[in-house]
Amino acid sequence: MDIRTLFVANTVANFAFALGILLYVIGQHSVHGSIAIWGKSRFFAGLGFVFLALRGTVIPVPIVIVAANSFLFTSVLLSVFAFKSCLARPHPKFPSTAMVWAGFLVLWLILQAIGIPEYMRLALFTFYFSVCLAIVSRDLAFGWSKNSILQKFLGIVTPVFSLLAFIRGVDALLHPSQGLFSHSASQVAVMFIGFVESVSTSFGFLLLAKERTDRELEMQASTDPLTGLPNRRAFQSMAEMVFSLEKRTGRPVSLLFLDIDHFKKINDRYGHDAGDRILVEFAGILRNSVRQCDIPVRVGGEEFGVLMPETSPAAAYEAAERIRIATESCRVEMRGESVNFTISIGVYGEETAFSPDLDAYFKNADGALYRAKQNGRNRVEMA
After folding, report:
1. Residue 137's CB: how many other CB atoms inside 10 A?
2. Which DSSP helix (H) or strand (E) runs through 100?
3. pTM metric for this prediction
4. Span 338-376, pLDDT tens digits
């Protein structure tokens, strides 16, 4: 296998990925944005390898050098941003792809005009490639989901490729006579490893992006979009698991049923956006006030619930009081005013939950909530 054959193989592989991603994006309703960026990176990589494969043909060598390097440099940078987007890592706003390519094109026109030798061009690209892979390795180590087996695998493999690229750059500086088209065994081996890296990273990235998309869709299906709390459907499923466990152990389970007082008046006076801010603010109070094992939920509208495993009614009452006090002391700025709001809470629990039923819990807690409203609001009532 010679170098030109590997360039052709890289061309075919990258264009195939680009086309496959394009067809996938067209046919899907929900696709993570990083996949489209990765598709662009494969397209530019394909263009770069096309020019490398055509070197020594009718196209003048200076044009091949400038075009191939500008396309490949753009491809590598797009790959970095695709990983950052997929892994939810912080990054500066990415300029248009055309601007990035134009910048690299100008850079390589200048380098070509200066007359930079081939071994230095090769070293420059491999060092640049190595640094970009190192950035991706860091993002894989700290980004998105550290529980993803695929992410861990890529986090191990990518630094290896980064190190190999760095070694190839050093070798290019130490052996200036071995250019890009050298048919030495080491050069062919390096190019073959590069081809394997390109294909394996593409497959790995697409699987990682799909994994994240699937998890996001799963999260959207089980989360209230405004507050980020579990929705009623997810809460029902989690409650069944809690009740199943407590039924076997006979330990207490309690439920808080919470309602924001005079919520309609807030909406009428300040608008629905202000009402949404109140809901989000209260959801934050709820998260910070309950234990990790407790399950908060937005039941609907201004109503919320908290299922508290292994919690007696008396302990649940104390927790409800803490939530009430934290809410009462909260202030939200609206139209230049500092607005406070309060909540009413109904508490129901069973000391020994041998036959717990979520509907019955809500019914009893709702009765206590009704009494809290009748008795003046901003209070906690036990069922």
Report:
1. 21
2. helix 97-114
3. 0.69
4. 888 999 999 999 887 656 688 889 999 999 999 999 999
